[in-house]
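SEQUENCE AND FOLD
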Amino acid sequence: VLSHNLCTVLNVPHDPVALEEHFRDDDEGPVSNQGYMPYLNKFILEKVQGNFDKVEFNRMCWTLCAKKNLSKSLLLISDEDAFKVWVIFNFLSEDKYPLIIVPEEIEYFLKKLTEAMGAGWQQEQFDHYKIALNTSREGLSAWELIDLIGSGQFSKGMDRQTVSMAINEVFNELILDVLKQGYMLKKGHKRKNWTERWFVLKPNIISYYVSEDLRDKKGDIMLDGNCCVEALPDKDGKKCLFLIKCLDKSFEISASDKKKKQEWIQAIQTTVNLLRGGNPPPHKEARQKRKELRQKLLAEQEELERQMKELQTANENKQKELETVRKQLEAAAARAAEEEKKRLQTQVELQDRFSLELEREKMVRQKMEEQVAQKSSELEQYLQRVRELEEMYKQLQEALEDEKQARQDEETVRKLQARLLEEESAKRAELEKWHLEQQQAIQMTEAEKQELENQRLIKEQALQVAMHQLEQLELERKEALEQYEEVKKKLETAANNTKSWKDKVAHHEGLIRLIEPGSKNPHLITNWGPAAFTEAELEQRQKSWKGKKATSE
């Protein structure tokens, strides 16, 4: 029955034999959707030529689905208006199953309805509705759109007749391709009389009827690219005239007012221009542009989503890499922190050690400075003592010279004394001899005795003189010995002082050395004189300093 009715509405010859052949081996029977769709496409839809009444086809489809899906209890519109809304939905819906109408097309349809009702468009109200719609779904189904229009949400304050007229106007424009319609006067070709007609402008034809119910059609004005429309001056008592020129005929028409006249001229001229350019009607072209724009936006959105997915994938990979790097960095940071902790601990220990050594060095330096100051003072004292010792040395040299001279004199005196003693002995012997001789001489003669007495007196005087000289030399020798003892004591005192100072200098690394025989080994020289340490000690200290510096770095 469905196939027969479809063939009747679509003006396609029905072939029952093909239907039976198609479903013969189907175990599920002829009501199988899976099996019927190939048959519908092959034996019915592919044979459609386009010479069928689309409204009747829509009514058949409406009859099949309306009873099951249409809700009549809450609708403020008639079944006929619901049918027209359903047809408009099929025109504006997206070309994919299940069919839905997107918010942009809903806005376009509601604007058309509002304009047809003569009301103002409430953009803010629709924006709120659109936001609520987008949060739950992509669009509305046909029955949801009928519920929306029938609920009166966007037609508050309008009666049912006004809404019905608006739906009918939008239906005529979008479905029946009615670009403009209305009553005007037409001049007859034979009688030349003026008759009121209901004109309907479509993309390639202007039809005129007795009334707007479209039951009694009086004729058509076929439009093509060669047609033109022009305004005419008022004549024969008729105003607002314009002329439609076609190849075979011309039509004089009178509008009700200048505004209507201008609207009709503009609408007819637009239609002719579209025919010349081979363009579709404005509402179909606008729909196609909106669809292309949505497809473009959808493609861009899909491309953006694809790029976002790629970026997300890349971001996830990067996140994994970053997580791996982060873990590595955390491990490295932990190792670095441990090493830093060890380094800081080592640095603190080194700083403590260096601080102690620095304090020690400062103390040593302070002590050395004190010692240097003390040594400088001692050096001054030493230099003063050295000068005194040099003076004493000079005096000692002089004393030694005097002692030497005294010793020489003493030796001379000793020699003289020895000689005198020898002489005295000789003289004593001689005196004894003389005494003996004197005794003998006394015995011999008194004169000789007297003479001998005189000689004895002379010799005694000479002996006394020699004894006096010997005593004098003995006194000088004692004085020289006393001076020698004094100089010797001074030398011992100076030697003791020099030895004590030398011991102190040697105890403090010997900044100043006494004048003494030098070592055979080469010595280092500083700004203050010979160094207090050897070359080996200097190399050992340099190695110690370099090791401390490398450890601190």
In short: The longest helix spans residues 282-444. The first strand starts at residue 180 and ends at 187. The chain is about 65% helix and 10% strand. The chain has a mean pLDDT of 80.
